[in-house]
Design goal:
single chain, 227 residues, alpha/beta, Rossmann fold, 5-stranded parallel sheet, 3-stranded antiparallel sheet, 9 helices, 8 strands, binds zinc ion
């Protein structure tokens, strides 16, 4: 039966919680575009004409400093106008503040998306730092790879053929800073969805496969199934 639903999966969690891995799999199996702020920063800066704005965005990105809300919202809106969301959407690491969460609520209405299913991947700082020090990121599409994936040792992205690199903001000192930063900011977002509904807390220290199975169960409860 043809489904008229337009799921919105939101993946939240500090760096190292496995958002990227879960998002990639959900995207492949549900056939949904994935909106990842890291990847969007690059695309936005390559196409946007305001060079000064783009330099500022790039500098913050490389230092692991969060982008201001209005910048993130501009980038997200830019993405939405250029991508097909008619079957739904996955948001990776957006929203990260209360203001962004409120903006997303507006976008849900504008794009006739279903109420978001928010997967909040919680993890402690030591496990997260350990994980991040062992990951590579695609320099083209920003997908993340763990040592268990064949692409990791090959050094080539299996989605787009881009070179895999260690991200400048994945170095341990910056990771700790990012972790603490995200943790504080995410708390108000967690509270926002706790009040509105749709929040699902997941233990991200569990094996990735187990986390994914839990996500699938929650999706199934809402009538969302892989293709
Ligand atoms: Zn890639």
């Amino acid at each position: 039966m043809e489904s008229l639903s337009r799921p919105l999966f939101v993946l939240l969690g500090p760096p190292g919680s496995g958002k990227g891995t879960q998002g990639k799999r959900l995207s492949q199996e549900f056939g949904l575009p994935i909106m990842s702020v890291g990847g969007m920063v690059r695309v936005f800066c390559d196409t946007h004409t305001d060079r000064m704005l783009c330099e500022e965005i790039r500098a913050r990105y490389e230092k692991g400093i969060p982008q201001p809300d209005e910048v993130v919202i501009t980038i997200v809106r830019d993405y939405l106008t250029k991508h097909d969301t008619s079957r739904g959407l996955i948001a990776d690491a957006f929203p990260l503040t209360l203001l962004e969460a409120e903006a997303l609520t507006d976008m849900v209405a504008e794009y006739a998306l279903d109420a978001p299913l928010v997967f909040f991947l919680s993890i402690d700082i030591d496990t997260a730092t350990e994980r991040i020090s062992h990951r590579k990121v695609c320099s083209e599409c920003s997908r993340t790879f763990t040592p268990s994936e064949a692409a990791y040792s090959a050094g080539i992205c299996d989605a787009c053929g881009g070179a895999l690199i260690i991200r400048p903001d994945d170095h341990p000192d910056i990771v700790r800073h990012r972790f603490e930063e995200y943790h504080t900011r995410l708390e108000e977002v967690r509270e926002y969805y706790e009040k509105r509904g749709g929040l699902h807390m997941l233990d991200a220290t569990a094996p990735s496969e187990q986390v994914y199975v839990t996500i699938l169960e929650i999706c199934a409860q809402k009538g969302y199934y892989p293709q």
